[in-house]
Every structure is written in structure tokens, then in C-alpha cells.
Amino acid sequence: MSGHDHPHEGPGRTASPYALRIRAIESLLVEKGVLTEAEIQDQIEYMDSRSPANGARLVARAWVDPEFRRRLLADTKAAALELGIDASGPVEFVVVENTPEVHNLIVCTLCSCYPRAILGRPPDWYKSFEYRSRAVREPRAVMREFGHEPPEGVRVAVHDSTADVRYMVLPMRPEGTEGMSEEELAALVTRDSLIGVSVPRAPARAR
């Protein structure tokens, strides 16, 4: 490994054509003075500091604080900043709330648009053609494969992310979590529940 996060060539390792192309573009941008190595490293460290744990913190706070929940739904960036999560930038973030009547599912049918500034890198399956096509065509079947299917009568709303707007799900608080601390609640929130293919863990499974 070099100082960057991505692997470079070495014994027994061959870079993919995509990695070689990215590296060539990176070198060209540095050579032309568009970017510096330090700026590239800063961006890598910025992305590495993002993870689904950020989303879990936001959800847990929304579960225990109705006013924060209201702010999270109305202005996600401002609410995230309250917890020290800087999601500033031109991309808009929208939090969609699961209710007894509606279950939300997030996809990017065109590529891999994802709330990276909050959740970090998307899982590989989120970027796959199979997920991107099936999430729209048969969302209940996709969720069933992740171990969850909303009850009959619950409407499934599929949100297609774009380069301008990224979505995150605010799942419903599990039953039996009364009296749990915010930290304990955050431990119930999984990455997949923030995308909507699943729901948070039951309390007993998180302990």
C-alpha cells in the first residue's frame, strides 16, 4: 500500500483497468496543477471518516428527540451538523421516514449515487446492475432476500438517487426499546436499514 487508500501494484497484485485509469487521471491532474497530492489525501481521509455509524447516530437521536427528528426531516445537513457530521456541499440530502403505512427503499438506477458524505462508501451490491434494476421492478422480492418484507398493506416507496439528491431512510424504532440509551439504540441501526432493504435489529440481537 502507498500513502493512498487504494492498492498499488505489488507482488502478486495486478491493478484493474479501472484502477489504472483512475491513477492515470490522478497523475495528470497533479501534473497539471489542478490538484495536489495533499488535497487528494485529504479527500481520501475525509471519505474514510464517513461510515454507517453516522447514520445510526442520526437515527438514534431522532428516535429520542422529536424536535431533532423534525429538523432531520426538514434540513438533513443542518441536523447532521448538530452531531458534528459535516455533509455540506452542493449535493442535497433527503431523509425519508418509514411509518406503519410506508416503507422506503433507496436505489440509484443510473450508477451508485449514495449519501457518502454521511454514510461513506456504498456496499458493492448497491452498485450492482442487478440491485439497481430489481429494486425498482420487484422491491419486495429484493427486501425478502435481505430477510425483511413489509407486511401486506404497507406501501413500498422507491427513491431513485441522483447526482443532485441523495436519500437516507429513517427506520421505525423497534419495539421493546423503551428505556434504552441513545448509544444502545444506535447499535440497533444497520447500514442496510438506512438503505431500506432491511430494518433495525431487534434489541435482543444487538446485545
UniProtKB/TrEMBL annotation:
Keyword Lyase listed: yes
Matches recorded under Pfam families: NHase_alpha
GO MF annotation list: nitrile hydratase activity; transition metal ion binding
Residues the entry annotates as binding Fe(3+): C108, C111, S112, C113
Keywords tagged on the record: Iron, Lyase, Metal-binding
InterPro entries in the cross-refs: CN_Hdrase_a/SCN_Hdrase_g_sf (IPR036648), CN_Hdrtase_a/SCN_Hdrlase_g (IPR004232), CN_Hdrtase_asu/SCN_Hdrlase_gsu (IPR023900), Nitrile_hydratase_asu (IPR018141)
Known EC number: 4.2.1.84
Domain of life: Bacteria
Catalytic reactions on record: an aliphatic primary amide = an aliphatic nitrile + H2O
Family, as annotated: Belongs to the nitrile hydratase subunit alpha family.
Full protein name: nitrile hydratase
Species assigned in the record: Rubrobacter xylanophilus (strain DSM 9941 / JCM 11954 / NBRC 16129 / PRD-1)
